[in-house]
Amino acid sequence: MQTVFRGRHFITLEEWTKEEVDTLLDVSCELKRDFAMGKPTPYLPYQTVFLMFFEQSTRTRNSMEAGITQLGGHAHFLDTSNMQIAHGEVAKDTAVILSRMGHAIACRNCFWKQGNEYLRELAKWSTVPIINMQDDLYHPLQGIADLMTIREKRGANTQHLKVSVIWAYATTHKKPISVPLSQVLLFPRYGMDVTLAYPQGYDLPGWVIEKARKNAEAHGGSFRITHDQEEAYRNADVVIPKNWGSWVTNESTEVVDSTLEANRGWKCTEDRMALTAKDSLYMHALPADRKNEVVDAVIDGPHSAIYDEAENRLHTAKAVMALTMGGR
Questions:
Q1: 314, containing H or E segment
Q2: Domain coordinates of the chain in residue numbers?
Q3: pTM of the predicted model, to two decimals?
Q4: Residue 153 and residue 320: Cα distance in Å, rounded?
Q5: In CATH terms, is domain 142-307 a member of 3.60.70.12?
Q6: Where are the beta strands (DSSP E) in 4-53?
Q7: 286 CB-near residues (< 8 Å, 6+ apart)
Q8: Same fold across 13-139+310-326 and 142-307
Q9: What is the percent of the chain with per-residue pLDDT over 70, rounded to a whole number?
């Protein structure tokens, strides 16, 4: 078991070894058991984490705020529109000053071709851990919570578990690609047979596909792409139907366009869930665009694990903070 984490950045799980990810999962599970038993876990007394948000948040903000409180520390919520960032302050100056005042900086910046670059710039100048609360490419906090949920529901041996990451129709906003991207990179590292399904125009970057295949080859799983959603549902053990934007092929910020409207039929329905394995799981990072991405009978039905998945965001966030801000 890898045990040295203090001061590490958490920007993508690809930069953490599988042994380190295993430790993160172990700590998450222990913190979840302690929470269930009402056992105090003051591992970070009097420590401060700054939470910088360029976008809205529900699960991420509250899992981080509640998490640091349960660890004995304190979170500062920072709406970047009310910071000097709005007047042009550069990432270097923000990183240097905040890292002198606290113990970690967490940031959500999902602007296409900007978010990950901004977090990397923070990491370059910060003397404390940088925690990625989602950028344009990665959402490691969601990825690790998803993996934790799958292992809870299907056991620690995930070898050849059939998992389908499926694009779904939605009109709420043009969503980042960071959730499916993180999933297709992480799940093959645990030997899963991963299918990525999407209509033409919603590709992930080529380097992601290449790395997903390499991860599958290295860990005994598989990775494939299909443009047939029924094929992705058929015999799947886990389905994750979720919208993401066409950023790779179309950088426009327009939410609804002809490509999106041509694929209104990409929806998770009871008929499609009937194609899956008997005890399959339906998962979603939330918020779901109900009626568009998924029908209520599925998201509120017996296959759904969305609320356990969301709760796990708390325990994995605590594990990330406890290891990188404390630890040894």
A1: helix 306-321
A2: 13-139+310-326, 142-307
A3: 0.97
A4: 22
A5: no
A6: 48-53
A7: 58, 59, 306, 309, 310
A8: yes
A9: 100
Mean pLDDT of the chain: 97
Instruction: Report pLDDT digits (tens) over 267-304.
Output: 999 999 999 999 999 999 999 999 999 999 999 999 99
Q: What is the pLDDT of residue 10?
A: 98
What residues are paired with 268 via a beta bridge? 294
Give the strands of the sheet with 48-53, arranged side by side. Answer: 74-79, 48-53, 104-109, 130-135
For residue 100, the surrounding DSSP H or E stretch is helix 91-101
CA within 13 Å, CB half, 239:
34
Helix (H) or strand (E) holding 123: helix 115-125
Residue 173 neighbours by CB distance under 10 Å: 13
Superfamily of 13-139+310-326 according to CATH: Aspartate/ornithine carbamoyltransferase (3.40.50.1370)
Give every CB contact of residue 112 below 8 A, 6+ residues apart in sequence.
136, 176, 247, 251
Amino acid letter at 282?
A: Y
